[in-house]
Amino acid sequence: MATADYIVLMDWDADGSLNPIAFLSPYQPAEEDELEDISNNVRSNPGITTVRGRDQIRALAPPMAGRADCEVDNQSREFSPENTASFLYGYLIPGKELQIKASFNGVEYYLWNGYLDDLPQYPERSRRSVGLPALGPFARLAGKKISTALYQSIRTDEALGYLLDAVGWPADRRTLDTGQTTLDWWWLQDEDAFEAARALLNTEGPGASLYEDGQGYIVFESRHYRLTTSRSTTAQATISDTGSEPLHSAPFSYNPGLKDIINVAEVTVKTRAAAGSYTAVWSLGQTVTLAANETRVYVATASDPFTDAQTLVAATDYTLTSGSLSSATLSRTSGASASLTLVAGATGAILTSLQLRAKRVAVSNTTLITNTIDASTSITKYGRQVYGLTTRYEIAATVAQDFVNAVVSRYQDPRPFVIVTLNNGTDERMTQILTRQISDRVTLVEAQTGVNHDYHVERIQHRISEA
């Protein structure tokens, strides 16, 4: 058997540093970081599990927030949140960064990186451990409602960058390939960040990928990435059931891909244009009364996105009936909403007719684009299978036409997928276990199913036990 050293690090003090220093025994650390390498405390039963990649092993499955789980021995009560004598007291809360690595033949490999989701306690005498379930970076997007400015003529990767900025995801923890789809207009208004990211992935088109890598980076790959990148165009390994190593082992699962057939693709395109003149895109419709030096914020939400919002002008955008305003400012000049911040003067202020003027970007035309590629043979054989993923509406009709044709061309016939298992029986297998990454191309051979094809890696799951 080929064995590796597994390293589990937890940033308990949330200082952004994962210091790989082992636990001291007895627990008398010189500083907090010495408790951040918890490798020796991870129980071999149930061991460590990690998964990242697509939500399901299917060609059209969406990306998912990865997951990791393990248990640490807690006979010392060092991981008990209520134990005030623990050096970790006050640090044992969800949200801390968890990193899992493997060291093999002198090389370190990143397997998983995410954030602690909970700290379940198992105090019974037969167990006395603490669970460390964790979620990947996408969990920091899911459920988070965001709004952005309005952008014109930007690529999908640029839009994704603005989205990640809006949720506060670090610029140095993302890898964004240059997108091949240009959005005529793009903005978000109180939308779920993860769902919005998935819509951008779908709009980029067939072949694009969005996933978490082993270092916890958010990675976006355009629809051209796997057509032009060597690790995706050339098989990085051949993994077979017989013959030369590396060999795969049971279980080996094959699915013909019948559920992912698409032979009809339709997308709606909305053409928008900015108005040539300024109009009131929002008005309050009530009197505003401010106390002396009071600050009040109003969120102006428009029915259509707008651009070039104007600074508030007295007697035009509001009527001051008494007192004074020290300032009246806008949070941004485009989007579907903006915050208006009013600060009263020393004697307070009363004003009416508060409004926001901007150039409305309204829909001028709505068109349903349908594929022109002949898929009649597929329809006859499999029935009418319609594309159902959410995309952005604001793309050019010509781009949309290429998009729906590409979808049908790619998916009108079944695209089989497999789940292949490798164990650590040999160095060759362990090398494949640790080096293969999402979007790598591999050749898989299995005699019973007749599989002898190239596949792209879409999902990676590690199971480490008896370490």
Search tags:
467 residues, seven-stranded antiparallel beta sheet, flat, 38% strand, single chain, mainly beta
What does this structure look like?
With 467 residues, the protein is mainly β. It has seven helices and 29 strands. Strand 15 and strand 16 form a beta hairpin. Helix 1 packs antiparallel against helix 2. The chain is flat, with a radius of gyration of 28 Å. It starts with a strand and ends with a strand. About 3% of the residues have low confidence.
Uncertain regions: pLDDT < 50 for 5+ in a row? Answer: 21-33
Count of individual helical segments: 7
Major sheet characteristics: 7 strands, antiparallel
What spatial form do the alpha-carbon principal axes imply? flat
Strand order of the largest sheet: 1-5-6-9-3-2-29
Q: Strand fraction band?
A: 35-45%
Oligomer state equals single chain
Q: What is the tally of beta strands? A: 29
On the 0 to 100 scale, the average pLDDT is 94
Radius of gyration: 28 Å
Specify the helix fraction band: 10-25%
State the gist of this model:
With 467 residues, the chain is mainly beta.
Layout of helices and strands:
Layout: E1 5-10, E2 48-53, E3 67-69, E4 71-73, E5 97-104, E6 107-116, E7 121-122, E8 129-131, E9 134-135, E10 145-146, E11 151-155, H1 156-167, E12 174-176, E13 182-186, E14 191-192, H2 193-204, E15 209-212, E16 218-221, H3 225-228, H4 230-233, E17 238-239, E18 249-255, E19 266-274, E20 279-283, E21 288-290, E22 295-307, E23 319-330, E24 335-352, E25 355-370, H5 376-382, H6 397-411, E26 417-421, H7 427-435, E27 441-446, E28 451-456, E29 459-464
Parallel strand pairs: 12-16, 17-27
Antiparallel strand pairs: 1-5, 2-3, 2-29, 3-9, 4-8, 5-6, 6-9, 7-8, 10-14, 11-13, 15-16, 18-26, 19-25, 20-25, 21-24, 22-24, 22-25, 23-24, 27-28
